[in-house]
Amino acid sequence: MTEIEALAAVGEDHRQTLHGGHFPDDEMAGQIDRLDRWYAAMPPLAALHARIADALSDLHDIKTMGHYWWASAGATLLMGGTAALALLLVASAL
């Protein structure tokens, strides 16, 4: 049995045991960021910022919640620099 099949079996067992086979209303499954927000519920740029800030925060301490100020600033600078570079490349190609 592969990992995906095993995960599906565990999920089905959970659904049958705790929810009587029904799917709970408004229940989401997925990853959350260090500020306890669902990545799937965020707009794409906010989710990208959160993932970068999470990764930078994990470089310092993987056990804490929240972003360090420098991780959020670094994520913002990285995204802004990438957007500026893309704009320059497009402008130079024209």
The helicity comes to: 55-70%
Class per helix and strand makeup: mainly alpha
Strand content: under 5%
| Average pLDDT over all residues | 84
Q: List low-confidence stretches.
A: none
How many strands, what sense, and barrel or not for the largest sheet? Answer: none
Number of helices: 3
Query: What's the SSE pattern?
Result: HHH
* Beta strand count: 0
Question: What is the CA-CA span between the terminal residues?
Answer: 53 Å
Radius of gyration: 19 Å
Shape estimate: elongated
Characteristic key phrases:
3 helices, 94 residues, mainly alpha
3D structure, described in words:
There is one protein chain. 63% of the residues lie in helices and 0% in strands. The mean pLDDT is 84. Helix 2 packs across helix 3. It is mainly α.
Write a concise synopsis of the structure shown.
By secondary structure, this protein is mostly helical.
Architecture blueprint of SSEs:
Layout: H1 3-19, H2 44-60, H3 69-93
